Amino acid sequence: MAEFDTIIKGGMVVDGSRTPRFRGDIAIKDGVIADIGFIDDNRADKVLDASGMIVAPGFVDLHTHYDAQLFWDPYCTISGWHGITTVVIGNCGFGFAPVAAESRERAMLTMTRVEAIPLASMKEGMPWDWETFPEFLDSVERTPKSMNIVPYVPISPIMVSVMGLDAAKAGTLPTEAEHKEMCRVLHEAMDAGGCGWSMQRLPPSGPGAAQLDYDGTAMPTDIMHNETALEFAKVLRDRNAGHMQCTMVSGNPKADQQHLAELAEVSGRPMIFNVVQAQDGLPHVHRKVMSWLDRCREQGIRVYGQGVTTDAGFTFTFEDWNLFDECPAWREATLGTQEERLAKLADPERRQALRDQVPAFVVGPFAEIIVTGPATPETEQWLDHTIGLIAEKTGKHVVDAMLDIVVADKLGTEFFAMPPNQRLDLLKEIVDNPYILFGVSDGGAHTKFLTAGRYPTEALTKIVREHGMLSLEDAHWRLSALPAQVAGCPDRGVLKVGAPADVLVYDFDKLEVLPAEVAHDLPGNEWRRIQKAKGYRYVLINGEVTIENDEQTNVHSGELLRHGRGRVANEKLQGAA
Q1: Buried b or exposed e, range 511-522, using 16+ CB within 10 angstroms
Q2: Measuring CA to CA, which residue among 406, 399, 350, 403 is closest to residue 376?
Q3: Distance of alpha carbon 526 from alpha carbon 307, whole angstroms
Q4: Can you list the domains of the chain with their CATH numbers?
Q5: Whole-structure pTM value
Q6: What is the DSSP secondary structure assignment for residue 368, as one 8-state letter?
Q7: How far is residue 296's CA from residue 304's CA, in Å, rounded to a whole number?
Q8: pLDDT tens digit string along 131-163?
Q9: Rounded to 5 degrees, what angle do the CA atoms 179, 183, 185 make?
Q10: Pair 37, 30: CB distance under 8 Å
Q11: CA 128 from chain center: how many Å?
């Protein structure tokens, strides 16, 4: 019997620790890195040729919504195609546990707008063999996985389960008994393996109100009292474990920043702030956030920013689009059945309000939105035209130019909008801050108009190879080791002896994000937009090859990482205790 299961042979090792790259071999035994250096081929059952390749730790994606998709897609794609080997679910306070049996339909409806996950897919693809959070984790553990899963404990379901839906969504201050019970539920969830807790604190209307419930109302954590968040922070302090994640934009950022810093200080645990995003015309916005992050670090308060480093645009139709919800008039006009939305968008009496509230928060300049898929002969003439050019040619306001086409196509017109972060100099400002995490893939969410799960491949090709903003050593630290540390996954993100063998072998010169396409591969006969990758020779998760030459091998070696660790590591800790 061979000494090792696998040797990754002859690659250039970039180990994730920011030490200089070196040529060497990686030996793997029982899913763990057993040796690094020059290792004879005959010492292993299998040898993977990595000549001319980069060998690096798998990427860790801290911001996903694969809570539903993981049950029907073991690879959590598109993340699994882009070198990501560990994802954190339950972000923004959203999730499916604890949820009573009679509340399952309402829980799924919530995710149809705020994260744009198709209802039919959730209904058909989720087993719903749980009610409590520990039962949910047991279900995730039973599910075949080609990805490591780290679970946040989402706060919204806890509030709803204890307070009731109406009270949780009314902004009611919980009673002392309700605070006590919610903290008990959080402790129970953390005992079961939660890595911390998450919330969204976005305003119910106005700039930033882009993620609302299916009926256009605020999510429970949006209107949660600060006192409640502090109670949850104290749970982490009592446990001396876990971290927090918050998605937040507000008209009063100073107060909100003070609140998040207080949560980090009270808990003594890290806080991940989403998002740090450059806006080409408003560079002061991300600069102020970065200055605040620097001040927190100087004071010893652990608040990390998570940066948007991808320029993945939005391809959308008004059949599904909800990211204009920041504007009340647009939000109201895009709620309801297809027939109701069509009537509202065609209503001339509503148009002035829509013209007065031209969306500007999520996408770049409204006039630069492009018609990429006219749906009728009447609108075919506008193919590849910007809305601004159409408005100029027709003498219409840009809103009327767009919506007249949308109405003619019965909501079926396809548009493409670039996000507001196109300037390379502003991207470099974010990249130059070594403590801003890369990511915000939103994997599993916004499936019909966003493919941001490509961000690791894009970081290596654009930020490192094309523009030289970072070395490979620094890039892999930012993509793997730093997020693993923040997420409480001490063994992940670095190639070292004794670490789980989550390993990438890729051709740096040939690495590529492939063009967008539509895939009809979701349960319930639903579809999504995807972007695959090219250049990944091998992806190994816990020592097994899950991707070979950019193709899935259908090997399910992923694990649920309770408390950030795999089953064997947790058993060893329990034994030591």
Answers
A1: bebeeeeeeeeb
A2: 406
A3: 30
A4: 4-57+503-576 (2.30.40.10), 315-417 (no CATH)
A5: 0.96
A6: G
A7: 9
A8: 999 999 999 999 999 999 999 999 999 999 999
A9: 120
A10: no
A11: 23
